[in-house]
Amino acid sequence: MYTQALNVKEEATAASDPKLEARFQAHVDAELKIEPNDWMPEAYRKTLTRQISQHAHSEIVGMLPEGNWITRAPTLRRKAALLAKVQDEGGHGLYLYSAAETLGTSREQMFDQLLSGKAKYSSIFNYPTLTWADIGAIGWLVDGAAIMNQIPLCRCSYGPYARAMIRICKEESFHQRQGYEIMMTLARGTPEQKAMAQDALNRWWWPSVMMFGPSDKESQHSDVTMRWKIKRFSNDDLRQKFVDATVPQGHFIGLEFPDPDLKFNEKTKHWDFGAIDWSELKRVIAGDGPCNKQRMKQRRTAHDEGRWVREAALAYAEKRRNREVAAKVAAE
Ligand code: FAQ
Question: Which long-range contacts link 10-14 to residues 24+ away (Cβ below 8 Å)?
Answer without folding.
Answer: 11/39, 12/39, 12/40, 12/42, 12/45, 12/104, 13/42
